[in-house]
Design brief:
Layout: E1 24-30, E2 33-38, H1 49-64, E3 70-75, E4 80-82, H2 87-96, E5 120-124, E6 127-129, H3 131-137, E7 141-145, E8 149-151, H4 165-173, H5 175-184, E9 187-189, H6 190-196, E10 201-203, H7 228-241, H8 245-259, H9 264-277, H10 284-294
Parallel strand pairs: 2-3, 3-5, 4-6, 5-7, 6-8, 7-10
Antiparallel strand pairs: 1-2, 8-9
Helix pairs in contact: 3-4, 4-5, 8-9
Length: about 300
C-alpha cells in the first residue's frame, strides 16, 4: 500500500492490507471500521480497470481481517460518489482492441459481491450513476446526501448495466420502476430512491450529528471531524461494530441466503447449521453477551474467528 493511499493502521493487522494506488484511499474512523474513498474527483470518481481490482482486494481484506467489522465506501469531493466507468479508458480500449478486465465480484469489487462476510455501507455524495449505482444496489446499507442523484444512463450511450444491478434492481423496486430506470436512463433524487427502498436514510449535506459529540476522534492522522453523509455512515457503522461480530456475520449470512432466493425454511436451517458449524452457538461472544446483559454492563467482544 503506497503512503499516499492510507493512514497509519490504528491496529496490528493479522493480514497485511492490499497494495493500492492514490485512486483508492483508506482511512479508519475507528479501529473496527475502514472508510474507502474513491479518489478521482476531477473524473467524477469514475472507476478505472486498475481500481476495480484494487477495490476487490480491499473488500477481501475486510472479510479476512479480524480487527475490522464494517466497511464504508464514499467518493472524494462533493460532486460525485461515482459516475460509473472510465469512459475515456473504455474508448481507448475500443480503439486498440485491448480487453478490459474486471474482478468476479463486479464493478468496484462490489456490484456482484456474493455473500461477503462483513457489511458495507455506501455513503453517497453527489452523482451516483451507472456502475456507481450498481455498486450501491448491492451494498448492505445506503446513506445518501440530500443532493445525491441516482440513475442508470447506460442505454443512452449504447451500453448495458451488466455488472449485476438489473436482476437486483427489479427484486428491490419492482418491475415497472426497474423498467423505467433501466430503459429510460432517467435520474432520480435521493428522497425518491429512499421511497423505493434502495436508500435507508437521507441526510442534509451539512449533517454534523446534532449531538455535539466527537465521533471519529479515534481516527488516525487528524484532519478534523467527519461531516455530512460520511459522518452519518460512520455512526451507523459504529452501531454495527459495537455488536457481537459473530452475530453480525451470521445475521448477514442469513439475509444473504434469503436474497439469493433460498426458501424460508431452508434458509433458516442454513443459518442454524452455520452457527453450529462455526462455534457461534455457545461460543465465546454468545456467552459474553448473555453474561454482560445479566450483569448490566457493556459486553467485551473478541474478534470473530468466522
Amino acid at each position: 500500500m503506497s503512503p499516499s493511499s492510507f493512514q497509519k493502521l490504528p491496529f496490528t493487522p493479522q493480514h497485511p492490507p492490499p497494495q493500492l494506488s492514490s485512486q483508492t484511499l483508506l482511512t479508519f474512523p475507528t479501529p473496527q471500521i475502514v472508510l474507502v474513498t474513491l479518489n478521482r474527483p476531477t473524473s467524477l470518481n469514475c472507476i478505472s480497470t486498475t481500481q476495480h481490482h484494487e477495490l476487490a482486494s480491499v473488500w477481501e481484506w475486510l472479510d479476512t481481517e479480524p480487527s475490522l467489522r464494517c466497511g464504508i465506501i464514499t467518493g472524494a469531493g462533493n460532486k460525485s460518489f461515482c459516475a460509473g466507468a472510465d469512459l475515456r479508458e473504455w474508448n481507448e480500449s475500443n480503439k486498440t482492441g485491448r480487453k478490459r478486465s474486471r474482478p468476479i465480484s463486479g464493478f468496484g469489487g462490489l456490484s456482484n459481491r456474493s455473500r461477503g462476510k462483513k457489511p458495507i455501507i455506501a455513503a453517497v455524495n453527489g452523482l451516483c450513476l451507472g456502475g456507481g449505482f450498481e455498486m450501491v444496489i448491492n451494498t448492505d446499507i445506503v446513506i445518501a446526501a440530500s443532493s445525491a442523484v441516482f440513475g442508470l444512463p447506460e442505454v443512452k450511450i449504447g451500453v448495458v448495466a451488466m455488472a449485476g444491478a438489473l436482476p437486483r434492481l427489479i427484486r428491490t423496486v419492482g418491475r415497472q420502476r426497474a423498467m423505467e430506470c433501466a430503459l429510460t436512463g432517467k435520474q432520480y433524487k435521493a428522497e425518491e430512491v429512499r421511497e423505493w427502498g434502495i436508500v435507508n436514510e437521507v441526510v442534509e449535506d451539512d449533517y454534523d450529528g446534532g449531538k455535539g459529540d466527537k465521533r471519529g476522534e479515534e481516527r488516525v492522522g487528524g484532519g478534523g471531524e467527519y461531516k455530512g453523509v460520511v459522518k452519518r455512515a460512520i455512526e451507523v457503522a459504529e452501531t454495527i461494530a459495537g455488536s457481537s461480530p459473530d452475530s453480525v456475520i451470521v445475521s448477514k449470512y442469513g439475509l444473504d441466503v434469503g436474497w439469493a432466493g433460498i426458501g424460508v425454511e431452508e434458509g433458516a436451517a442454513n443459518v442454524m447449521q452455520a452457527m453450529r458449524d462455526n462455534g457461534v452457538d455457545g461460543g465465546e461472544n454468545m456467552k459474553e453477551g448473555v453474561r454482560a446483559f445479566v450483569e448490566r454492563r457493556r459486553p467485551k467482544w473478541v474478534h470473530s474467528k468466522l
